[in-house]
Design brief:
95 residues; mainly alpha; 0% strand
Amino acid sequence: MTLATLDRPTNAVGLAPGRLHRDHLIDQLSTRELEVLALMAEGRSNRAIGEQLTVEVKTVETHVSRVFTKLGLHEDRHENRRVLAVLAFLRLRAA
């Protein structure tokens, strides 16, 4: 399965809605937020991220929350913000 098959439906231009916007917003993340997002992309839990970065879980939760906010990912019972953030990160890495 390719990354494209995991993406949301595409619009007429062939890009997932919000994709370019979210990819651009990744530039707004701090170095630490990018580190947290990279570890999220590895599939690590908040606890595992905290252990890797030697910070408390509460600190990781704060960074994750800021990532969601900066990427414009609001709570939605139909979407998983963690997955959407990781997809934006992976697209950036692939570019």
